[in-house]
Every structure is written in C-alpha cells, then in structure tokens.
From TrEMBL:
Gene3D superfamilies: 3.60.21.10, Purple acid phosphatase-like, N-terminal (2.60.40.380). This is Metallophosphoesterase. It comes from Larkinella insperata. PANTHER family: ACID PHOSPHATASE RELATED, PURPLE ACID PHOSPHATASE. It comes from the Bacteria. The lineage of its organism: Bacteria, Pseudomonadati, Bacteroidota, Cytophagia, Cytophagales. Residues 163-355 form the Calcineurin-like phosphoesterase domain. NCBIfam families: TAT_signal_seq. Residues 57-128 form the Purple acid phosphatase N-terminal domain. InterPro entries: Calcineurin-like_PHP (IPR004843), FN3_dom (IPR003961), Metallo-depent_PP-like (IPR029052), PAPs-like (IPR039331), PAPs_N (IPR015914), Purple_acid_Pase-like_N (IPR008963), TAT_signal (IPR006311), TAT_signal_bac_arc (IPR019546). Keywords: Signal.
Length: 413
C-alpha cells in the first residue's frame, strides 16, 4: 500500500526534475556523488551556458613539469594546448589508469617533459559533455581561454624569489592589495601559508575568495603553493578543498627545491586538542603531526636538503612565540628538535596575527622564526624572500607599504 506522504514527495521530486529538464539546467542527470562534492552544480544559471567558473591557475609539481588547473561550470572533457611559440603544437590531458579524465568540472592537467627555465605559452579548453551513456557520448559547446604563458622552474638556477601571504581569512581584497605592494621586483612563485579562509563552506567560496584574486593577480603566469592553516580544517567542505590544489608529492605536506633553496612544508593541523568537543570526535591531528615529524626527519637527511645553500620551512603554526595551546605546543615538541638537529636556516609562519622577526634563541630554537601578520587592516603583511647562492634576504611589508621586518642570511655550505 502506498504511503500518501511518500507519494507526495515523489510527485514533488518528479515535478522538480521535470523543471530542470525544461530549463536545460544541466543537460544531463549528474550522479549523487558529484552533486554532493560540488554543490554549485545543483542549480547553475542556464543563462550562463558553458563557462569557466575560474580562470586557469598554475600549481608547481616538480622538475620539468607544471600543472594547470581551472574550474568549469558543466561536466566536460578538458585539455591544454601548449608550446614554446604562439603556434603551441602540443596537447595534454589527464589520464588515470588508462581512462582520460572527463565528465568532471575541476581540471588538473600536468604538463611534463618541459625544459627548465623555459617560457611556454598555453591555452586551456573544456568541451561540454551533454550526455554520457555506456556506448554514446554527446558533446556540447567548447570554451577556451586566452593565450597565456609561464616559465618553468630551474632547480639548478642561481636565484629564487617568492612572495608569502598568510591569514587572509576570507578577505579576497587583501590578496589583491598585498600583491600591489610587491613593486617591480620579480618573483618565481607565491606561497599561501594557511588560514586563507575562516572555514570551508563550498566551492563558490574557494573560487571567489581565492582562485579569482590569485588568477587575476598572478596565477595564470606564476604558480602558487598552498598549505592548510587550522581554519582550513573546519567546515563541511573541508574534505573537498584538496581537489583545488596540487602539491609536490601529492600530499598536504611536501618538499621541493627551487634554485639554491630547499623548502619543507609542514601541515600543522588544528590548534586545540583532538578531544575538544567542538571537533565532535572527527579529527586526529596528533597522529598526523607525528607522521609528518617522521617524514620531515627523512627529508632532512636527503641529498637535496643537505646540499641546498639554504633550508627554509613553511608552516602555518610557528614552533615558538605562540599562545601555548595544544597544537602549537605539539608542533614545538615534535619539530623544534628536528629543525635544530638538521640545521634549518629559517622558519616562516603565521597564525598568531602578530607579525614579528624572532632571532634564534640558544637552547630553544637555533633558527630564526618569521611570523606574518593578521587579517585586519593595519596588521596584514606581505613577505618577500629572495636568495642566490651566497645570500638570502627576507623583507616584510605592512599593508601600508611600511617595512616592519627583515632578515639576512649568508650561505654556510
């Protein structure tokens, strides 16, 4: 016997589905898993047609490669055409286990076999898939970007320079403003050192508050690298954020060498105990930080680390000069002995919202700790780092352009 309530719900569902079909909102019925991971697909604007939700943005993966990412509003087959001249001539798409990645919106395509220190031009394409049946695939419109360019990193280069931002906290105008302070100095990449958001809500937040200002400011031509802060671990979209970034080694923590500098990136996790009621029993950051300490110990014994002229660590929560909460103290206990043992030259952090330059302290941390500012006007900072094979210079600017910190290191090896 039919339940009247169930029948009414079914009629309501069928009416809604029919409405979607009439407006052509999706052109096809998406799997529930896709809708769950990408809420913005539930009700796209039919008037938009097929469009890019984000412009292309670059992510650095490793020697001889560059990853191009972008987000389209409809499921597509996507690719990159690239080359050393405007004629391009080469094409790349993403393949997983023999299947070309398609019927997706978040595109992540790695170009490999690139020459180091070489400028390439590129253009991205997304061809809408309007119907995906077992033996029939139907394409719709193709959209493409303008002609863009990037220069590949050279691990053997004599110099490297980067910009560092932290604790933006859902203020995209901060990214735009701080980047305007960089002046005419060249830079190779931007490092985003955590807490770019207050918490993770949905895809639109990621696009509007990070991807758009980065693409408009630099990321179509210069890559950025990202590490989570404690705020990126919060909110219902926390598990999806990784889809929008690509790190070396494919994990939230990683290492890479660029020119004379070896960079180690630590994902410091939450700042409160795992047992804190607000986490509702669904975090395990103590074990995660311990995992990273074992990994970092191995990295810092590697030839790449030992031979580097300078050894720099990025981590959102600093090992010292913090509020003594559980997460910061755990970082201090795990990582300070490692950094001292392996002679880390510099640690760059955020989190405290109190910008400062902390000299090494004998018996505590044998390395300087640079802490970037906060999210409020008058506390926001841009860190500029540049190094050659003899010297490393760091400069920290306040959001009014005033210099509020600097550090200089001379190569010891």
């Amino acid at each position: 016997m039919n339940n009247p309530k169930q029948s009414a719900n079914r009629r309501s569902f069928l009416k809604s589905a029919a409405g979607l079909g009439a407006t052509g909102a999706l052109g096809s019925v998406l799997p529930a898993s896709v809708l769950a991971q990408n809420p913005s697909l539930r009700s796209p604007d039919p008037a938009k047609g097929h469009v890019f939700l984000s412009e292309p943005y670059l992510q650095y993966v490793g020697p001889g490669s560059m990853t191009v990412m972008w987000v389209a509003n409809l499921p597509s087959y996507s690719w990159v055409e690239y080359g050393e001249s405007e004629s391009l001539g080469q094409k790349a798409h993403s393949v997983t286990d023999g299947l070309v990645d398609a019927y997706n919106r978040i595109n992540k395509i790695t170009l490999t076999g690139l020459k180091p220190g070489t400028t390439y031009q590129y253009r991205v394409f997304s061809k809408e898939i309007t119907e995906f049946k077992p033996y029939k695939l139907t394409y719709g419109n193709t959209i493409e970007s303008g002609l863009l360019r990037f220069t590949t990193p050279n691990e053997q280069a004599d110099t490297v320079s980067c910009l560092v931002l932290n604790d933006v906290h859902d203020r995209p105008d901060t990214i735009t403003h701080l980047l305007s302070l960089k002046g005419s100095d060249p830079f190779d990449f931007v490092f985003l050192n955590g807490d770019l958001f207050d918490y993770q809500t949905d895809e639109q937040q990621l696009i509007d508050h990070l991807l758009k200002p980065c693409s408009a400011g630099f990321a179509q031509e210069k890559p950025f690298l990202f590490v989570r802060g404690n705020h990126e671990t919060r909110g219902k979209y926390r598990g999806e954020i990784h889809q929008y970034f690509t790190n070396p080694q494919g994990k939230p923590y990683y290492s890479y060498t660029w020119g004379p500098v070896h960079f180690t990136v630590i994902d410091t996790g939450e700042d409160k105990p795992d047992s804190e009621p607000v986490y509702a029993g669904i975090v395990d950051f103590d074990a995660y930080r311990q995992e990273q300490s074992r990994w970092a110990d191995q990295v810092m014994q590697s030839a790449a680390f030992r031979k580097a002229k300078f050894r720099v660590v990025f981590m959102h929560i600093p090992t010292h000069h913090h509020n003594n909460w559980h997460g910061p103290m755990h970082c201090q206990q795990l990582f300070t002995p490692l950094f001292n043992k392996h002679k880390v030259d510099l640690c760059i952090s955020g989190h405290t919202h109190k910008y400062d330059v902390h000299e090494p302290v004998a018996g505590q941390h044998n390395y300087p700790i640079i802490i970037g500012g906060g999210s409020k006007d008058g506390t926001r900072t841009l860190i500029k780092l540049k190094a050659d094979r003899k010297d490393l210079h760091l400069l920290m600017l306040l959001d009014d352009g005033k210099e509020v910190g600097q550090y200089h290191l001379t190569a010891k090896r």
